[in-house]
């Protein structure tokens, strides 16, 4: 006895195979989306850590720490950041400071600084990390007093520090 398109006995083998094929295609598409989402979350997490280190170093530059105010360039290579800054948190995973490289570059006096009554230098801070065999970097610029020899910290800039 037939009711509508289906027989009273159930689905045929062909109908079951077609349904399983469609279901497997949908699951493969969802799996690819999930893998992409996990990869992007990882990239976002490591980039966030790099920006946190960038902010940390930038605040110390603005604070006038002379060991971060190079005459030209200063680089903390991979594996040395925690030794140079013992107050950085000792985290594991992507939050480990030793997974990052920091470069501070003194760009000199900015062109607009001639009208100011204080000396100011522009510094470029770059934080890099390795991921999937490539190196990625993020950077920012900040301003501080120029380095002075023999003084533990540079004079603070009025209105900035």
Multimer state: single chain
Coarse shape = elongated
Number of helices: 2
Proportion in helices:
25-40%
Keywords:
161 residues; alpha+beta; 4-stranded antiparallel beta sheet; 6 strands; 34% helix; 24% strand
Any chance you could write out the topology, listing elements then pairs?
Blueprint: E1 2-3, E2 6-7, H1 13-62, E3 73-76, H2 81-84, E4 100-108, E5 121-131, E6 134-144
Antiparallel strand pairs: 1-2, 3-4, 4-5, 5-6
Task: Give a nutshell description of this structure.
With 161 residues, this protein is an alpha+beta fold. 34% of the residues lie in helices and 24% in strands.
Q: Would you give an account of this structure?
A:
The protein is of the alpha+beta class and 161 residues long. The chain has one domain. The chain has two helices and six strands. The strands form two sheets. The protein has a four-stranded antiparallel sheet with strand order 3-4-5-6. A two-stranded antiparallel sheet has the order 1-2. A hairpin with a 2-residue loop joins strand 5 and strand 6. The model has no long low-confidence stretch (mean pLDDT 82).
